[in-house]
Design goal:
Structural class: alpha/beta
CATH topology: Rossmann fold
CATH superfamily: NAD(P)-binding Rossmann-like Domain
CATH class: Alpha Beta
Mean pLDDT: 92
Strand order of the largest sheet: 1-2-3
Low-confidence stretches: none
């Protein structure tokens, strides 16, 4: 899925949940391509690594943060850590 976005997000941090596939992945990549540092959140670490690799291949900055956001404590810790 290709998501077209044209905005300067330099020095911004974006947390994208569901970033391992589908719309979440497309949003994460588009944000990274536009300068945001993207924190990619989902349960599947392997798929998250692929998303981050795609962001970096496009010249963006990103990191994977495996987390089940249905676990309130884990989600809160992920946000705090970011």
């Amino acid at each position: 899925m290709d998501l077209s976005l044209s905005v300067d997000l330099k020095d911004q941090v974006a947390i994208v949940t569901g970033a391992s596939q589908g719309l979440g992945r497309a949003v994460a990549v588009a944000l990274g391509q536009n300068g945001a540092h993207v924190v990619c959140v989902a349960r599947n670490a392997e798929k998250l690594a692929a998303t981050v690799a795609e962001i970096k291949a496009a010249g963006g900055k990103g990191e994977a943060l495996p987390c089940d956001v249905t676990d309130r404590k884990a989600a809160a810790e992920a946000i705090e850590g970011t």
